[in-house]
């Protein structure tokens, strides 16, 4: 298989897994009236990211997040020619995952869409800070010595789970434009999508040392 095709396919599958599991946990928690719990949702996001990194990290780097791809490119750690194919694959994976959730839960109104609990600007600020912290960890653990990089999946999955646990009730703790885009487009909840497209992208750029 062509190297670029293999890498972009890995990004599509990885992002599909992230959105299907993460937004799916939110959806199932609603359907079962708390059967997953907020803690369960946070753990789901952390565990699926950790699993995807372990599965395809050696293939594509397991960005599974447009903000991560853009930040790696801005930090000169990712070739510009691969940015658009990665972004396209990530967005396609997120949309396919949301469509799968729509087929499984046709009556659910949001499909795990990230929506502000308070003001949009509060969530905008929170998403910037969350993504700065996430991207700082990503940049550090992927550029450190071998004994640090060995635990990259655990560190990155851990910080995502941590941030989802404490910030999820306010902003949804997206930190990922693709994760928010898929469910928002498929469910038709586009009113706050600008928050989740712009804030993580800005936060990821601000994290570059």
Brief account:
By secondary structure, the protein is mainly alpha-helical.
What attributes characterize this protein structure?
209 residues, mainly alpha, 9 helices
Task: Give an overview of the whole structure.
Helices cover 74% and strands 0% of the residues. The protein contains nine helices and no strands. It has helices spanning 3-31, 37-60, 66-74, 83-104, 120-141, 146-149, 152-171, 177-187, 193-206. Helix 3 (66-74) packs antiparallel against helix 4 and helix 5 (120-141) runs parallel beside helix 9 (193-206). It starts with a helix and ends with a helix.
Q: What is the averaged pLDDT score? A: 96
Radius of gyration: 16 Å
Enumerate how many helices there are, as a single number. Answer: 9
Distance between the termini: 36 Å
Q: Biggest sheet, in brief?
A: none
Content-based structural category: mainly alpha
Overall shape: globular
Number of strands: 0
Low-confidence stretches: none
SSE succession: HHHHHHHHH
Strand percentage, roughly?
A: under 5%
Helix content: over 70%
Oligomeric state of the chains?
single chain
Helices and strands in order, then pairings?
Blueprint (H helix, E strand, L loop, with lengths): L2 H29 L5 H24 L5 H9 L8 H22 L15 H22 L4 H4 L2 H20 L5 H11 L5 H14 L3
């Amino acid at each position: 298989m062509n190297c670029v095709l293999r890498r972009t396919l890995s990004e599509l599958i990885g992002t599909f897994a992230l959105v299907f599991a993460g937004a799916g946990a939110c959806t199932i928690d609603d359907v079962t009236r708390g059967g997953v719990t907020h803690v369960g949702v946070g753990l789901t996001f952390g565990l699926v990211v950790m699993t995807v990194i372990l599965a395809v990290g050696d293939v594509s780097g397991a960005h599974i997040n447009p903000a991560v791809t853009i930040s790696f490119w801005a930090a000169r750690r990712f070739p510009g020619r691969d940015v658009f194919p990665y972004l396209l694959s990530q967005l396609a994976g997120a949309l396919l995952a949301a469509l799968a959730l729509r087929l499984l839960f046709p009556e659910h109104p949001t499909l795990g869409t990230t929506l502000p609990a308070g003001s949009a600007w509060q969530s905008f600020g929170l998403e910037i800070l969350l993504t700065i912290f996430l991207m700082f960890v990503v940049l550090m653990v992927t550029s450190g010595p071998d004994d640090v990089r060995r635990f990259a999946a655990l560190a990155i999955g851990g910080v995502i789970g941590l941030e989802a646990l404490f910030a999820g009730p306010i902003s949804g703790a997206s930190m990922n434009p693709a994760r928010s885009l898929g469910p928002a487009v498929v469910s038709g909840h586009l009113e706050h999508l600008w928050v989740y497209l712009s804030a993580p992208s800005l936060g990821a750029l601000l994290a570059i040392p």
